[in-house]
Write a structure and sequence with these properties.
Catalyzes the NAD(P)-dependent oxidation of 4-(phosphooxy)-L-threonine (HTP) into 2-amino-3-oxo-4-(phosphooxy)butyric acid which spontaneously decarboxylates to form 3-amino-2-oxopropyl phosphate (AHAP). Pathway: Cofactor biosynthesis; pyridoxine 5'-phosphate biosynthesis; pyridoxine 5'-phosphate from D-erythrose 4-phosphate: step 4/5. By secondary structure, the chain is of the alpha/beta class. The longest helix is centred in the C-terminal third of the chain and has 25 residues. It is globular and about 60 Å long. The chain has an eleven-stranded mixed sheet with strand order 3-2-1-4-11-10-5-6-9-7-8, with helices on both faces. The structure holds 1,4-dihydronicotinamide adenine dinucleotide and ligand LD2JLWAY. The site of the ligand NCC(=O)COP(=O)(O)O has 6 residues, from α7.
Length: about 350
Amino acid sequence: MNAALHRQIPSLAISLGDPAGIGPEVVLKALALAPVRERCRPIVHGSRKLIEGTYWQLRERSVAPLAAPDSFEIVDLPAGGPVAAGIVAAGAGDLSFAYLQSAIEAVQAGQAAGIVTAPIHKSAWHLAGHRYPGQTEVLAHAFGSERYGMLFAARPATGSWALRVLLATTHIPLAQVSASLSPQLLRDKLQLLFDSLKRDFGLDEPLVAVAGLNPHAGENGQIGSEEREWLTALIAEWQQRGYRIKGPVPPDTLWIDAARAWAGEPAAACDGYLALYHDQGLIPVKMLAFDQAVNTTIGLPIVRTSPDHGTAFDIVGQGVARHQSMVAAIELAAELAGRRASLSVAHAR
Ligand SMILES: NC(=O)C1=CN([C@@H]2O[C@H](COP(=O)(O)OP(=O)(O)OC[C@H]3O[C@@H](n4cnc5c(N)ncnc54)[C@H](O)[C@@H]3O)[C@@H](O)[C@H]2O)C=CC1
Ligand SMILES: NCC(=O)COP(=O)(O)O
């Protein structure tokens, strides 16, 4: 990889996501913006035919601004047969899987410093036989990462990244959450979170809050046993090791200071939050910052980001898809790639 080039303006592989979803639209909208183009060299992995079709369809609806398909680099991949917009289909699942694989190969070949993934539809992947829970696991497998995490970071309209929430468990049924949580899993996730807060976000002594699992964080064992049996002790262990960490915090009040700080009010918000399951972390993130939040995979040797939203099949082709989360995803990827390039140059000295 050409570290000097990537440090100045990183090349980013952008996979187009499910062709039946809003991925192509939000990519064209995001790449039309000067601040995005000033921060990175985008290389879009997807079908040129699909990109051009989306462009002309949106132009007919007077959607603007849009990046012209010849204004950025495209790694042209098969378009497959006709794609039915807004429909879950195996063919579309196969294509979005191939677009992601192509982006992965580009990074492995040193052609890009990171990957930004537009949303895929997980049921379409399953229909096509790609039995991964999501893109995160494909990336972890491709890059040989055994410990990795799904971190959501959000940035207010003015200012830098403020809200950072790591999910301890992700795409599993609610009924399996308790059995999936263990002291070792939480140790791994906490290490990933502290490392990322330091390395990726430049925080020297970050403060982290850990959510309880049960109402009132278990009410001393009256409403669930996880906190009393091991979670409280695990957090005390990390405090003794010198980490700035608190919890288990009752999940209903955990987000109050984060929300106040997000609104610009004085509040004792933490630098990072560990939520124990998907919706415990993503309901507050999406309520506060749906347009500004980014999904980033931590623990990979490369940078990977994605918008916080999905394929939004219900609005495909209408021109109303909001592109701000894709913009934030590209900008965070560029920032993280730049930071990592600087760190590797500093290490090499
Ligand atoms: N980064 C990724 O690859 C992600 C993929 N997904 C996948 O997407 C598929 C659909 O998931 P859903 O739960 O329906 O969530 P979704 O985010 O696709 O849609 C939820 C609601 O939000 C609206 N919405 C979403 N993004 C929007 C945007 N940019 N602008 C305006 N409105 C927007 C949709 O119209 C819909 O009403 C699933 O297969 C899911 O697993 C979900 C989240 C992230
Ligand atoms: N809810 C987040 C999400 O679905 C993202 O999944 P992934 O495809 O990034 O693994």
